[in-house]
Amino acid sequence: MRDLLSSIKSPDILKNASDEELVYLAENIRKFLLNNVSKTGGHLASNLGIVELTLAIHSVFDSPYDHIIWDVGHQAYVHKILTGRKHLFHTLRKHNGLSGFPKRSESKHDCFETGHSSTSISAALGIAKARDLKGKKNSVIAVIGDGALTGGMAFEALNHAGHANTDLIVILNDNEMSISQNVGGISRYLNRLRTDPKYFKVKDDVEYILNKIPAVGKAMYKTAEKAKDSLKYFLVPGIIFEELGFTYIGPVNGHDIKELKVVLQRAKNIKGPVFIHVITKKGKGYKYAEKNPDKFHGIGPFDIESGKLIKSGNKRESYSSIFGKTLVNLAKEDLRIVAITAAMPSGTGLNDFASIYPDRFFDVGIAEQHAVTFSAGLASNGLKPVFAVYSTFLQRAYDQVVHDVCLQNLPVVFCIDRSGLVGNDGETHHGVFDISYLTHIPNITIMAPKDGTELIEMLKYAVKLNSPVAIRYPRGESDDFTFISDNYCIEDRKAEVLLSGKDVCIIAFGKMVRTAYEAAKRLKSKNIHCTVINARFAKPLDEKTILEECSDIKNIITLEDNVVKGGFGSEILALLCKSKKNDKNIKILGLPDKFVEHGDTEELMRYYNLDVYSVIEHIKEMIS
Ligand SMILES: Cc1ncc(C[n+]2csc(CCOP(=O)(O)OP(=O)(O)O)c2C)c(N)n1
Ligand SMILES: CC(=O)[C@@H](O)[C@H](O)COP(=O)(O)O
Ligand SMILES: [Mg+2]
Questions:
Q1: Is the ipTM beyond the 0.95 threshold?
Q2: Which positions in this protein are listed as binding thiamine diphosphate (predicted)?
Q3: Strand partners of residue 172
Q4: Per-residue pLDDT tens digits for 71-90
């Protein structure tokens, strides 16, 4: 048997591989994924599940002539291996290394970039229509998971594609899982298609009966074979995809390469939009990932033998976990509190809330826009909705925040996790725009805690407010300032002065308070004395404290882990201008006007001059 993996540089090699060779290749790819991702971390379970499907797609289609669009893109590792990037896997998700998502700059085989879910069908349809207008004939294939299919955009695109009069193939990779168990009516519907004994019985009966009829039976069966899926349409009530205008094929065993190739070849020859329903097992081939696909969806380095995470040092509790526990406690006291997630219960720390208060917990699927307006509805009818959401995914729901929540001044609490740099996921996932996209909206209060204790206090305050509130906090370990801070009162909406000094005033927001504090401590030994303000609020700013503290200090620095444009520093600058205090020497430190790449968060903070050392240098330069 040829060892295709060791020599693979392009998918062309698959075209003349036997089915047995492809099965052997699938086995080797799984070993390769396991060996590499156990060292680098990454999205393991989704990739283990999609090995055969990716091999079949690249066997039947001709990338990059044919276009393949991967929804979310976290499952594109196998595609990367087959398209000449195997040798880069030791650098996966590291700074300047291989991205964890499709990147046009990385390969001509990555025709469209993804990271946020449910975009693939819209993109594929656009690509297909452009192809038609250019008079070309290549295939366009969108590969979308059952989780991503819960996103509204996917349905907007299916609705359009069904009557767009173009050739398009949508492959649904149905593994019954989003990151956690998939939820909702669509998921239940797919489950019925997958398992309905009535369907399988009827299908088998029809094939059996036709085959039994002597002479004509075989011919009739051949005709019926063609019409089988349409036949199914009549036999299974409401195949929604057929109703939308697609030819539905499935369910297909997503781990049978031979069957997959036959089905894909057939789809390639069908005119109009085709929907192929493929069934796979998330985590396939690695027992720990099959058993616990949520844990192995996106995982850090782990030990292959035991499936246990390799942890470095003693870590403090994460902000997500502190948030989750606090909300459980608050919900005990206040029965109006309900929690909402858009398919991220574990990532946002809501798992305990979900099991303790199942009736007050809502996983709405990957549907951030709906989650926000749903929260607005809950609030308008007397409840206290807390929507826990990653900063980057809330971008989706900007208009709902404006139009459905803030315009009506409804008391929805946005707990914005993963704000700032998130690290290895990179461009698509950094939460560096939320201050910019929220501060200009009337009625909203925006806070960021300097440490875990402050997050607890901010959440207590937020659920008491009768208007929209956002609390932003970063990925990972919480900080702890209890050794110096003795006032955690949030209700007075005041900033906190952590250190006083006459040379420089550093006004920091959220996680950056630590950087300001450490820089000030080190500068003291060089006889440079800094005031350090923990702003707590980006909106409304505690104008009084800030202006008083700045009044006798010439040098002012603002620090944030948001983009500088439209961020926290801009708010301070506007305040100083408004108060005629623009005779100051001011530096606004934050992230630049570009999409920040992937890499370790600390490394990126150094790279963008936002670490303690860089802040010290900024201050020295300012003073000199
Ligand atoms: C808009 C948006 N919200 C949330 C996420 C986080 N997220 C990434 S993958 C995923 C689950 C995707 O499930 P599915 O599409 O079924 O893919 P699978 O991992 O099962 O292969 C979620 C919720 C995202 N990427 N984009
Ligand atoms: C692909 C995706 O969007 C998620 O899987 C994301 O990578 C999760 O990030 P965390 O690891 O920060 O939860
Ligand atoms: Mg899935």
A1: yes
A2: 74, 115-117, 147-148, 175, 286, 368
A3: 144, 277
A4: 999 999 999 999 999 999 99
